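Re-running the complex after MR caught last week's input typo. The corrected sequence lines follow. Everything else is unchanged.
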Amino acid sequence: MNKNYFKWLIKSRKVSILFFTLICIAFQLISFTSYDPEYPLDTFQLSTNIGGVLSVFLTAAIPVLLFSYIHRKSSADMYLALPVSRKEQLITTVVLTWLMAYGSFFLGTLIVWAARLNCVVRIRTLVFIQLFSAYSFLVLILFFSAVYVLANSVFDGIVMIGAYSILPAVVMITVTTFIYSMIAGNFVPYDSFIYRIGTLLSPSTLFFNNLEYLLAPNDGGQEIFNPYYIVVQLVYGLLSLVILKIHFINRKAERTDQISDEALSYPFIINAYLILILLSLAWSVVSDSMNGLEFAYLLLFFIYIVASFVYKRTLKITWKPVAFFICACAATLIFAKAGWTTEGFGLSHLPHELFPERYLHYNYSADVTIEDLGKQVPDYNQDRAYLSFELCIPKEKASEYASLIDRFETLRNDAISNFYHYGASDPSTEINLSIFNKAKEDGPYMNYYDYNRVPPLSEKELKAISEKCEITIYVINDSEDDNVTDREYDSLNDMNLDEFLHWRETRSK
Amino acid sequence: MLDIRNLSKNFKKKEVLKDLCLTVPDKSITGLVGVNGAGKSTLLRSIAGVYAPEKGVITLDGKSTYYDMETKKKIAFVSDEAYFPMGATINSLKLFYECMYDFDKSAFSRYLSMFELDPKASISTFSKGMKRRVSLMFALSVHPKLLLLDEAYDGLEPLARLHFKNALTDLLEDEDVSVVISSHSLKELEDICDSFAMLENGSIMSGGDLTESKGNINKYQLAFREDMTRDDFADLEILQFEKEGQVYKLVIRGDEVMVEEKLRAMNPILLNVLPVNFEELFIYELESRGKKS
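Corrected-run output:
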């Protein structure tokens, strides 16, 4: 760190530093306006979250201000000719940014804690929050600085920060679309990294997820403080340092004010967004799960061309981006088609264990005809019965339920075949089968598979199942010729199978 | 002494500086001239440590101007596009130079009154010439060992130019300063430079002591009884050949005495020798290069 440079940064920006620090602290203190003596922890959580959000904003905003000189020719001449090495400029700027971002967070949370909440929040928790936040803010400063210096102008730098911040969400959308459109059963193991891919790709989310646990270890959305996230943050920090070495310390100053054509800048961002969105569209096209996609393709093409204009700073349309767009469309469609033909790249047929946990659950629900519960209702504009049951099989009784398990496994395979035969779009009527495990009867769902387009169970099979668990049936009156009166309808809710069969017999007489 | 050895610099695939060598002695003012795109600004930015040299070395008193921060402290660079932060005043910039360089407050006060600048006024309200004066004032106030001026001298009004020239002279008298000035105004450069370097396509085309170089190229006005052609002067290095009636105007490179001797041997009825100025020197050099290539 260069003391003279630091001194100058502080002296020349003392007003703005003071302003930002006070604003951040003031916002954190706002949480006291909703202070409830019965829930004092809420005040601390709110204050810390506000402080976290503001500090994360500062970790992105301050590097934009302090490193903007490399993006202007005249200021680059002035700063890069200084008797301060670029390494020292980088370290000094990062230290100042960290002091501002973490300093305001530290002071804000400390004031809130000391003022009223020191009896609610243990000092150990406070220290842990401070240490974790201090580390996370440093990683975020390095990350945002690295992303900012990838570009060659202030505007492009801000665009890069925005684009890299949103990219994890786009990746998550593409992955989720794939799971729901391309895999029959929508099954991905609950602890799969796929569900965390958005978090893992976003240094800000990594911070907020673990902070959430630290603030509310018992009722947080996440089960435990994830130490692996700290390792992932470290990886981001190290990668950012590599980028900063290449694009700041060894920066070619002549890049200033040029188009941002470095590999990780616009070329990567535009193509990554294009491919991810095209993949999402392609999953939907081949699985027939969405309508009006022609418009989406057209809109995407328009956005792609506009993005190319922003990147190249020219309004000239050349054949290259158009050809690339068409090729990318074709390639993603072919890739998605290959995925559909191979039934989700084989993911729908991954081997599964029936009893990885103690309990196996089959949850069946169907819209069927009143006359025959084993017949799927052709459309919703008629009277029908909605039946559902959840069959819970403990591992120790697996042999007793063997025939039923076989039947449900057949249903599962039929559902998979139907999914790839008819497409993923919601049918007008459907029969659903969810298969999952539980470690305890009242425990959370595990290994959740969800199938629609399941062939219906016959009445005979339903009768056999009703001996093992209760089947609930609702009669729904949707037909135009009102066969069931409202008064009758009220009494037809929540019948079991025997009651339903009795009602149906009486009704037919 | 500034020493540049085999300096090369590329902008992507374009080679802007090619194996460039240049030496600028202490207590000298070197004029850097060349057509647009010749590489003058790139050379100055490379010397100032803004651009990293791809090949070659640039040293000031034997130390790298890019890697050695103590050496960088001795270099003042005034860019062609002066930068002033939004809302900056001379006083706020003073803080910057005080923190970063060996800033001489008394010299600063002296230059401030010399250049007639208001230290409290926002620099953004200043005219282009006044902004130039601000840049030059700060560059002089840090007592540089090497002063690099990239077209910073252009656009100064006559009085400010005179003040600046005087300040430079004082600086050169008192300290071992080297100055490198690039400018398109060769007449102005001629007034203050003692040496020059002409850049063409990223290389030094010619250079050296200005007076000596100017003495090496002269204009000759001649008249002969009979008609002469360019071929009749084949043993002389003719840079320009013009004929108006019986009067010939020649620009010839070479020792004035020897050239005159040769010309007299051709029995002219008129022979006048006229000196060339820096601008003419530059033009003749460029033209002769064009003809050779």
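None of the earlier attempt is carried over here. DSSP finds ten helices and 14 strands in chain B. Residues 158-174 of chain B form the longest helix (17 residues).
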